[in-house]
Specification:
Blueprint lengths: L8 H13 L4 E18 L6 E7 L5 E5 L2 H7 L2 H4 L3 E11 L4 E12 L10 E2 L2 E7 L10 H7 L7 H8 L4 E2 L4 E7 L8 E2 L8 E2 L1 H12 L10 E6 L7 E10 L2 E10 L1 H4 L2 H11 L30 E2 L3 E2 L6 H6 L8 E2 L5 E7 L13 E7 L2 E8 L12 E7 L7 E3 L20 E4 L4 E8 L4 E7 L6 E7 L4 E6 L4 E2 L11 E3 L5 E8 L8 E8 L7 E5 L4 E9 L4 E2 L5 E6 L8 E7 L9 E7 L5 E6 L6 E8 L6 E10 L8 E10 L4 H10 L7 H8 L8 H9 L9 H9 L1
Parallel strand pairs: 3-5, 6-8, 7-9, 7-12, 12-14, 17-19, 26-33, 35-41
Antiparallel strand pairs: 1-2, 1-4, 1-13, 2-3, 4-5, 10-11, 13-14, 15-16, 18-25, 19-20, 20-21, 21-22, 23-24, 24-25, 26-29, 27-28, 27-30, 30-32, 31-33, 34-36, 36-39, 37-40, 38-39, 40-41
Length: about 725
């Protein structure tokens, strides 16, 4: 249903056409009325809210007004109209079939004094007046139950409003009365009275008739507000706002709620409607809904409803800082308003706890003449146990629109209670157009530390340093950092500034320009950590990063297997051998030296000489068997360097010395397969063709080498003569 109070000229065109087609007679006329403007909010248990604006003349005659959104904005919004004297000129539509005048379509409004809703201090006692429809049996709750609802013990409503208002407002002195019979049946108060196909509620009649029924028994002069409690539904909604009533022999303004049973049986709903009676509007998320923000009792009353009372059901959470400031409950020195062109760090106390010294309860950041941002801290405690989470919450406030305050939800996912609306340390809200930044710095024991920049965008600086004995370069994406060795010259840019919240990726690359050196990236320090070559930072403030590079040192590489010398007594020293000494490191090896030779046993000797002190080079080994006994002899050669990472390296040398053999032993080895003693066969084979076995060629080579021949025995010579 589209409430009549919201119909624009354009939306009236369709029903008017339908009425004309049905042959109805329509009269229009212009009139001017004066009185006090009354705003009433209608809240259904589900569905969209209703908003009605009335002008009530001093004699109690009420006129529903039809204002479109553009008119409301021009006039400063609903909050600027509520409880103000005004003179209204407009035209009214009357349908002859029903003889009921429709709303007064406003053409002009002349406004008088400022609204009476703010500031709001001191006792605000309510009369709970319970009324019955004559044809509806039953009294849903007792009068004593209503007295309990308004009491001063948590979560009763006097305690609730004391807590929410920092004890600026109370409803002490509230009393309950009834049940009283209404003079007319329900159909006289709720129905389609103007023939537009939708049901209307005659709020003025419901209030006045109930008040008149109670008037003989109630001294209304002792009350600021009236909660009208009915024993049945009153159309779609529970209602809250204000009304001028004729009681105690005169007429005056009251803060008023109209409550069906489902409304007064839920503490959060009752708190919501009393908030309207105090002049508070709805707040919401940014998605066009009204009851979607669990941060405010004036939106989704009761929030998460995780905390319920056995008697009063879902318990209301606090209202937002904008509403508390609207009613002047927050002291001026507890509201932070930044100066243009400044950046300042402040501490926000949670809005449910004013007893935190000098910490701010609210930040108010101007945008333009018609709007601003609010910043507040929330925590899960007491009545705020029904909010979504402990966090900082921001609202965009434009008082000229129907829902003044809207939650700032960064992710745009349709839920103003999710992570996108919960601003936590390390995050920042940025309005680049209006040059506003709210940077969440840290959580304190009680609230949050935030930095607010207004009129100039913060550009944190990232400073990079290259450290270690290696060479490398750090670059950034977005570009700006190219930080490397000092010989990069003017291209060396080791610090740069970027807009706040920039996701900056740094990359560390070891230098690969010189093949003689191998450089490594060893890891990050400062704001980055670990050894992965890239690091991504979200720049919320100035940061410093160190990249460590190292050079791979030289490493001595010697043969892994022992160098083997084979020798036989009588054949002289083994041949000289040369082996390669290499560098397996990542930088030049320039100071090689033979640091020592170890030799086991007695007799013989081993010489070792390097061709060069720079690797790669050749090590020449010269052995001597002088004075050695047959057997296996071991030696070690130690190669060292002052710069090598693995110095010293030891190389093994083995010399196998065989006994002298006789000709008879050789002949036995050749023709009879008798093994030669020790390594003699290997030595002889190695001197000749080294084909892996002893043959005649090996012996001939030995003889040809001029080696002394062992004498043959007499028997051997005789056998030779016979042949």
């Amino acid at each position: 249903m589209i409430p009549r109070g919201h119909l624009t000229v354009a939306t009236l065109a369709v029903p008017l056409a339908l009425l004309l087609a049905g042959g109805l007679v329509i009269q229009t006329g212009e009139e001017t009325v004066s009185g006090v403007l009354h705003v009433v909010w209608g809240d259904p248990p589900d569905g969209a809210p209703l908003l009605r604006t009335y002008l009530i003349e001093d004699d109690g005659i009420s006129h529903e007004l039809q204002l479109d959104e553009a008119q409301l904005r021009e006039l400063g919004g609903i909050s600027a109209l509520n409880r103000r004297r005004a003179t209204v000129t407009g035209s009214r539509i009357t349908l002859r079939r029903f003889q009921v005048g429709g709303p007064l379509r406003v053409q002009s409004i002349g406004l008088g004094a400022e609204p009476q809703a703010a500031p709001l201090f001191g006792p605000q006692p309510f009369a709970n007046v319970a009324c019955r429809f004559p044809e509806v049996p039953g009294e849903p709750e007792t009068i004593a139950w209503f007295d309990g609802l308004m009491g001063g013990t948590e979560p009763q409503l006097d305690h609730y409003w004391r807590d929410v208002s920092y004890d600026n407002v109370n409803i002490q002195g509230s009393q309950s009365f009834g049940w009283y019979d209404l003079p007319k049946p329900k159909s006289e108060y709720v129905g389609d009275f103007d023939g537009d196909g939708s049901s209307e509620v005659r709020l003025g009649d419901l209030a006045q008739d109930c008040a008149a029924a109670a008037d003989p028994f109630v001294d209304f002069s002792t009350f600021i507000g009236i909660n009208f409690m009915y024993n049945d539904l009153i159309g779609c909604c529970a209602w809250g706002g204000g009304w001028t009533l004729n009681v105690d022999g005169g007429s005056r303004w009251f803060s008023v709620t109209w409550m069906p049973p489902w409304g007064y049986r839920r503490q959060a709903t009752m708190a919501h409607e009393i908030g309207h009676a105090f002049g508070l509007p709805h707040s919401s998320g940014p998605y066009g809904a009204t009851y979607d923000s669990r941060w405010d009792v004036m939106s989704a009353s009761g929030g998460t409803c995780q905390v319920r009372d056995v008697e009063y059901d879902c318990i209301g959470q606090h209202t937002i800082s904008y509403h508390k400031d609207k009613l002047s409950w927050i002291p001026a020195d507890r509201i932070f308003t930044p100066a243009l062109g400044t950046s300042q760090r402040i501490t926000l106390a949670p809005i449910d706890d004013p007893a935190t010294g000098t910490d701010y309860l609210m930040a108010r950041i101007p945008i333009d003449a018609d709007s601003f941002y609010t910043v507040e801290a929330r925590r899960l405690q007491d009545y705020d146990n029904n909010i979504p989470a402990r966090a900082v919450v921001l609202h965009h406030v434009a008082p000229a629109r129907s829902k003044d305050a809207r939650v700032i939800d960064e992710d745009g996912l349709g839920d103003p209670n999710d992570d996108g609306a919960q601003w936590l340390p390390g995050e920042a809200f940025i309005d680049a157009v209006n040059q506003v930044i709210v940077h969440m710095i840290a959580e304190t024991a009680n609230g949050y530390q935030v930095e607010i920049s207004y009129g100039s965008l913060i550009e944190p600086t990232i400073t990079v340093a290259v450290a270690g004995d290696g060479r490398g370069t750090v670059t950034s994406e977005p570009t700006g950092i190219v930080c490397g060795p000092a010989d990069l010259g003017p291209a060396n840019q080791c610090d740069a500034s970027f807009p706040i919240t920039t996701d900056l990726t740094l990359r560390a690359d070891p230098d690969a320009s010189d093949p003689a050196f191998t450089y490594l990236f060893d890891g990050w320090g400062g704001a980055c950590s670990g050894t992965f070559p890239t690091c991504t930072l979200r720049l919320m403030d100035d940061q410093s990063v160190t990249a460590d590079f190292s050079v791979v040192p030289p490493a001595i590489d010697v043969p892994g297997s022992p160098v083997l010398f084979l020798a036989m007594q009588g054949l002289g020293d083994p041949q000289v051998q040369s082996v390669e000494i290499a560098n397996t490191g990542g930088s030049p090896l320039t100071d090689l030296a033979v640091e020592g030779i170890g030799y086991a046993g007695t007799g013989g000797w081993l010489a070792a000489e390097l061709d060069d002190t720079t690797a790669p080079t050749t090590l020449t080994l010269t052995p001597s068997i002088a004075g050695l006994e047959p057997g296996v002899h071991s030696a070690t050669v130690s190669i060292g360097s002052s710069t090598a990472s693995n110095s010293p390296q030891t190389m093994s040398v083995t010399l196998s010395l065989a006994e002298r053999v006789t000709m008879q032993q050789l002949m036995g080895a050749l023709f009879e397969g008798v093994p030669l003693p020790g390594p003699a066969a290997t030595v002889l084979d190695d001197l000749a063709n080294a084909n892996g076995f002893l043959d005649v060629g090996d012996i001939l080579a030995w003889l040809d080498a001029g080696q002394a021949q062992p004498p043959l025995s007499q028997n051997a010579r005789s056998r030779g003569d016979e042949r």
